Amino acid sequence: MTSSRRKIGSVMLKLPYPLVVAAVYVILGMTFHIWHPMWLMFLTIPIYYHYAGACMAKSKKAYFLSLPVPEIIVLIYLIGGFFFFLWGTLWWVFLLIPTYYWGAAALIKE
Known about the structure:
Elements: H1 2-14, H2 17-32, H3 35-38, H4 44-55, H5 60-66, H6 69-84, H7 96-107
Helix pairs in contact: 1-4, 4-5
């Protein structure tokens, strides 16, 4: 699994993902005039590269501790707030960040 995961990570690092996101953003913005919610697409750029870096990790534990959990949680919170107006009720998702890292550090063996 480690070698296939590293291949995936190296392929992901070669793709010009920011250019793809920018092109999709401009096309969707000009076509459907949804500039405001679509800027959230740019938050997938650090998620993408953080995941690609996690794929390059040498151990299973390092892989799980390198995943872009905080970035995904922030994106979930913003999507829930902008699209479903759950600003006040979705605060608890931030508690998943330390819970995830605690569980990953404690439960995953090398």
